[in-house]
Amino acid sequence: MQLVKPGEGRLFLSPLVIFLLLFLGFPAIVNLVYSISSVSFENLRAPELSGLGNYLDVVNDRYFWQASWFSLRFGIITALAECVIGLFLAIFLNPLLGKRPYLMAPLMLPLMVAPAMVGLMYRLVLHEFAGPVPYYLWMWFGNSPAFLDADNAFKTLVVIETLQWTPFAFLLFHTAYSAIPTDVREAASLDGARGWMMLTKIELPLIMPTLAIAFFIRFIDGFRVFDNIYALTGAGAGGSTTSLSIYIYQAFIKQGAIGKAVAASVILFIASLVVLYALTALGGRRKGRS
C-alpha cells in the first residue's frame, strides 16, 4: 500500500527548505559577500568588493593565530578534563544514585547558571584586591597568586569551565552507564570478569559512543567559548585570553572591521566543517570495521 504519491515527498519538504534558505542561506550569502568586500558601518548596505584582502589580513594577523591556539588548547583541555572527571563520578556515584536518584538534582546546579553570570561571579570572588579567595589565602598563608593575570588566567579559566560543565558530561555518562543491561554484566561475571577487567573490557566499550559524543560536544563548546571568558577577563593582558569568538567580536564591534570579522568567521566555519567531516569519516570507518 503506497501512502505517499511520487512527488509528494518534495512537497512535504518544501517548508523546511524554504526555512533553511531564508534563515540560513541568505545570511550565509551576505556574509560571503561581506568577507570579500571593503565594508564598515558607513557602507553596510552598499559594500565595495575588494577581493581576498580581508582573508589575507586575517591570515597575516598574529593575534588571529594566537586566538586560534588559545581556543584549540582550551577546547581540548576542558573537554578532556570534563569527560575524565564526569566518567569517574558516573561510575563512583552510580550505586548511590541508583538508591537515591533525587541526589542528581544538586549535582546539576552548575548547569542552571548562565556562563556570563559564572564569569561575573568568579571575577568578584577571585579579584586580586577585593576578592575573598585572595584575601583569605593571603591571611592564612601569607601569599596569594594573581588568578586573573596573564600567567594564571588560562589555568583559572580551564578550572572554572570544567567546574561548570562537568555535570553535563556526568549526566550523559551516568545515563549510558546505568543503561548497560544487567544480563551483560552477569554473563561477564560468570566468565570471570571482575573490577578493572569488567570496566575496561565490558562497560567502557559499551559506553564509548557516548564518551565520543560528549567529548565532541564539549570540545566544540569550549572552542567557541565567549561569554564567561569575556565577563571574567575579556581579551586578557596582551590578548592572553582572547578566544576566536572574542577576536571576531573585537574586530566587528571595537575596530569596525566588518569584512575582516566576517572573513575570520568564514575561516572558522570552514575549519569546523573539515574537523566535523574528518570525525564523521573516522566514525564511519570504525563502524564498518566492527
How would you describe the overall organization of this protein?
This protein is 72% helix and 1% strand. The radius of gyration is 24 Å and the shape is globular. The chain has 13 helices and two strands; from the N terminus they run αββαααααααααααα. A two-stranded antiparallel sheet has the order 1-2. α2 crosses α13, α3 (62-92) runs antiparallel to α10 (195-223) and α8 (153-178) packs across α10 (195-223). The protein has 290 residues and is mostly helical. The chain has helices spanning 8-35, 53-59, 62-92, 94-99, 104-107, 115-125, 132-141, 153-178, 182-190, 195-223, 227-232, 244-254, 258-289, and strands at 37-38, 48-49.
Considering the chains and any ligands shown, give keywords for the structure.
single chain; 290 residues; mainly alpha; two-stranded antiparallel sheet; 13 helices; 72% helix; 1% strand; globular
Count up the helices.
Answer: 13
Largest sheet report: 2 strands, antiparallel
Using only CA atoms, what is the Rg?
Answer: 24 Å
Terminal residue distance: 36 Å
SSE sequence, one letter per element: HEEHHHHHHHHHHHH
| Shape type | globular
Oligomerization = single chain
Low-confidence stretches: none
Which sequence of strands runs across the widest sheet?
1-2
Number of beta strands: 2
Helical content class:
over 70%
pLDDT average, as an integer?
83
Helix/strand-derived category reads mainly alpha
Portion in beta strands:
under 5%
